[in-house]
Amino acid sequence: MNQVKEFDKRLKKTEDVSFLMAKVMTLIFGTFGCFLMLLPLTGSNINAMVENLALFPILLLGMAVLVYLSPYMHMNQNGKNVSIYKMLRFLPVEPKEICQVRKEYLNKFIVKIGIISFTFQQIGAVLDHSWSVGNVCYPIIVIALAWGAGWIYIHIE
Prior knowledge:
Layout lengths: L1 H13 L1 H21 L10 H7 L1 H19 E4 L2 E4 H5 L6 H33 L6 H23 L1
Antiparallel strand pairs: 1-2
Helix pairs in contact: 2-4, 2-6, 4-6, 4-7, 6-7
């Protein structure tokens, strides 16, 4: 596992532009997704609009996860997009170890956006005076789906 983390440190130095772009896009998707969590799932007079917007945080936070993981999953080599798994097959590491390190990155990121989106959903519900159990379940479901998208992305490669 240490070899994979060392590879990632060197990768960040050589592929700094792709990591920067991933951070910027992750910030954009994550910010919009978390701010949409301010709209409570159940509300008073804006209920129809909120129900129509309920899928957007799922999509935006799912995209944030995928974009966050993308520089760890692919890299440019001779102008071609190459899977990290193909690059690391020459190191004495198992694909399981690569997946495990990637899942550590995923879990750290999910905890961060999970806390933020959960907090935003609760703040929105309290400000709208419409707090319910659905406001607790909704952010958990959103984050679980975003985590699932990241998990699938890691394992599909």
